[in-house]
Amino acid sequence: MTTNANFSKSILIVDDDIESLSYLKLQLEDAGYTAEINASIEIIDLLKVKRFDLICIDMMILGYSINSTGEKTQNIRFDNIRFEKTGLEFYRQLRAGAFTDPHYSGTPVDVPVIFLSAITSEILNEAGINDKKLMYLEKPFMLKELLSYISKLIN
């Protein structure tokens, strides 16, 4: 169901499963959102210069570079931050302001985040995370669940 209010909402989806990315992008665009996809967490410069209303990220994504043929090529570093752990480390760095740039009006540190993961949500409790702008959706999930979470966080 497309609503005109969604067209101004920009969502970044980060997952190392390229097929899932393409599917989610199409479904979110069908729902009226602007969706951008990325198959690795090579998104720091993007977050500095582009404003997203919400980020969906695979909690267990590793810091791999994706080459032009879609293959994982290497573990990567960003500005002395090594993302070999998970999307959880990315989240912590995001909230700490590691990806903000005073010269640009990019994505704010308090942007809503939805973790997409096959790991149970208990990991957030174990990590001591209590954030009203963070939701967790366990894979596999139904598209209407994701759309409901997005609506709760940004509409």
Please sum up the structure shown.
With 155 residues, the protein is an alpha/beta fold. The chain has helices at residues 18-30, 44-49, 87-95, 122-126, 143-154, and strands at residues 10-14, 34-38, 54-58, 64-66, 72-75, 77-78, 81-82, 113-117, 134-138. The chain has a single domain, classed as Rossmann fold, CATH 3.40.50.
H/E element string?
Answer: EHEHEEEEEHEHEH
Give the radius of gyration. 15 Å
Strand-pairing-aware structural class: alpha/beta
The CATH architecture comes to 3-Layer(aba) Sandwich
Measure the end-to-end span. 14 Å
Average pLDDT works out at 77
Structural domains: how many: 1
Q: For the largest beta sheet, what order do the strands appear in spatially?
A: 2-1-3-8-9
Helix content: 25-40%
CATH class wording: Alpha Beta
Number of helices: 5
Gross morphology is globular
The overall strand count is 9
Task: Give an overview in words.
The protein is an alpha/beta fold and 155 residues long. It has a single domain (4-154), classed as Response regulator (Rossmann fold). The protein is 29% helix and 23% strand. It has helices at residues 18-30, 44-49, 87-95, 122-126, 143-154; strands at 10-14, 34-38, 54-58, 64-66, 72-75, 77-78, 81-82, 113-117, 134-138. A 5-stranded parallel beta sheet has the order 2-1-3-8-9, with helices on both faces. Strands 4-5 form a two-stranded antiparallel sheet. A hairpin with a 2-residue loop joins strand 6 and strand 7. The model is unreliable at 64-68 and 72-85 (pLDDT under 50).
